[in-house]
Amino acid sequence: MKVIRFVVLVHFVFILFLNPLRIQAQTNGGLPPGLDEYINKVLQTFEVPGMSVSIVKDGKVVLAKGYGVKQLGKTDKVDANTLFSIASNSKAFTATALALLVEEGKLQWDDPVIKYLPWFQMADSYVSTHLTVRDLLVHQSGLAAYSGDLMLFPPSTFNRREILNKLKKLPLANDFRTTYAYDNILYLAAGEIIAAVSGISWEDFIKARIFDPVGMPGSISRYSLFAGMPNIAVAHDRINGMVQVVDHYTELNIGDASDPAGGILSNANDFSNWMITQLDSGRTPSKVVLFKPETTKELWKLVRPIPVSEMPEGLKPAQMDFFGYALGFRTYNYQRYKVVGHGGKLNGFVSQIAMVPDLQLGIAVFTNQESTGAYWSVIYHVLDFYMKNKKHDWLTNYKSAQDSSFAKTKFQLSKNTVQPDSINKIPVALSKFSGNYRDEIYGEVVISNTENGMVMEFKQLPHLTADLSYFQFNTFLATFRNVHLKADAYVTYALNPDGTIDQLKLKIINPESDLEFDDVLLKPVAK
Questions:
Q1: Highest taxon of the source (predicted)?
Q2: pLDDT number for residue 4
């Protein structure tokens, strides 16, 4: 038996008095040995400036801590209260908000959306009348993946209702309730139902009904407040192989219209309480009953299966047997355990949560650089410790997977990049291209000749401004001024028989871009 000297005992009691939570955390399940050193190695390997990590076990906070720095090249460190954009991890809050209203009898999961939003309309009348509240959350409406996202990220001038009113113009790519195709736009409809039924905005509902009782005082439900917060992480992205700060990221990432899909900002301390509440079947850390255990089952129940991909050799231990979408969460297996989680991405931020109900274990990792390998390296390392799995070198293998992905992207970019014919000349006068164009979904686009060349401006998507240069044949090159969008595109025109412009179409060059222009069709506005 070890003998503890009196002075050491007094010091221990003193520390316990000052910081009971930390000592309690260290004695409830423990942490993987050398975790701090491991996480710092992850940051270095994946060139991630900063990271926020939360681990909860058996209803207690085991770790809530920041690592690295808020901004590359500066010394201000990430701490447990540093705000990160959690992006699509916001969807679980929207689903939980609806669940609270279901418990109160104010709506039902299988009620048609039009019961609460009579004006709601999609491209197919059958889908419009049969789409339910549940359908809004599980990505099986028939919309193409990421349909309408150009109105959401970066923010447009359209408000939430105006965006949803354009749903009827978005074509359905799949049969209703047959195919998983991730969308963001229908979560805006979920937010509007919450407002219609509760009488307050989605943002205010999330704060009053979830953040406050759960114990999330630092979290923000309105993205536009991000820039004004005193302790925030700065977004970073990789451009031409170099990690750098994303310019104006607090203004360009997302607008408040899209808050229900991805606008929440949170930190390690707050998110620990969120995971404890979810894992304890709706009981908050202060033992307030936010929702009933039956609601937990409803939120976590798989609704829409997702095709399972084959993992590369180095990541085989993470091979799933099942994968699917529940209500604002994804659910899958890691080896013998069921995991409930989700990911999130906005320009310069990625996040991931993983909760294991059978172990009463929750892990959340937020980063300020777009490296999925970084957060998975941490999550699987921690899962293996608590699951008592055989050790696996996640860091090395995720770094190898990232390098392979970079190589594939570089190859695809080379395939997409066409070398122009040096002797080819534009067959029509540049002046013919100047003027007003319109896309029936995305609104007005103006092409103008300036002293510095031709400029294309999306008026309702004000962060999409590009310089146009003639490329070859019937194609221009659009170089977008916001390089972090990675949205440079070929702009191809078609002519009418009289030589006037009939239409313009855009095609993204960089496969890393989150934007899609495939459904953009610009038609000249008659003068």
A1: Bacteria
A2: 30
| Dihedral sign of CA atoms 42, 46, 47, 50 in order | negative
Q: Which residues contact 410 (CB under 8 A, 6 or more apart)?
A: none
Listed in sequence order, the DSSP H helices in 79-238 are 91-103, 125-130, 160-165, 185-198, 202-205, 212-214
Residue matched to tokens 């503890």: 4
> Beta-carbon neighbour count of residue 132 at 10 Å?
17
| pLDDT, tens only, 239-264 | 999 999 999 999 999 999 999 999 99
**DSSP string of 61-79, one letter each residue:** EEEEEEEEBSSTT---B--
Distance in angstroms (rounded) separating the CA atoms of residues 273 and 64: 10
Least confident of 13-22, 84-93, 118-127, 351-360: 13-22
pTM here is 0.93
| Strands 489-495 and 60-68, sheet pairing | unpaired
Largest CA distance in the chain: 97
pLDDT bucket at 420, cuts 50 / 70 / 90: confident
259-275 confidence digits (pLDDT tens): 999 999 999 999 999 99
Within 143-223, residue ranges assigned H as helices are 160-165, 185-198, 202-205, 212-214
CA torsion through residues 252, 256, 258, 263, sign? positive
Sorted by sequence, the CB contacts under 8 Å of residue 280 that are 6+ apart come out as 59, 360
Measured CA angle at 264 (ends 305, 354), to 5 deg: 45
Q: Rounded CA gap, 26 and 115, in Å?
A: 50
31-409: CATH class: alpha beta
Read off the amino acid at residue 521. L
pLDDT, tens only, 482-506: 999 999 999 999 999 998 999 999 9
Facing residues of 67 across strands? 51
Q: Start-end ranges of CATH 3.40.710.10 in the chain?
A: 31-409
CATH tag for 430-524 (out of 2.40.50.140, 2.60.40.2550, 3.40.50.300, 2.40.128.50): 2.40.128.50
Which residues make up the CATH 2.40.128.50 domain(s) of the chain? 430-524
* Residue reference for tokens 């679980």: 92
User: For residue 458, is pLDDT > 80?
Assistant: yes
Q: Which of 36, 86, 50 is nearest to 341 (CA)?
A: 86
The two structure tokens encoding residue 363 = 């892990």
Q: Whose structure tokens read 């390690």?
A: 268
Q: How confident is the model at residue 418, as a pLDDT?
A: 85
Cα(210)–Cα(105) distance, integer angstroms: 18
Peptide bond between residue 420 and the one before it cis (omega within 30 degrees of 0):
no
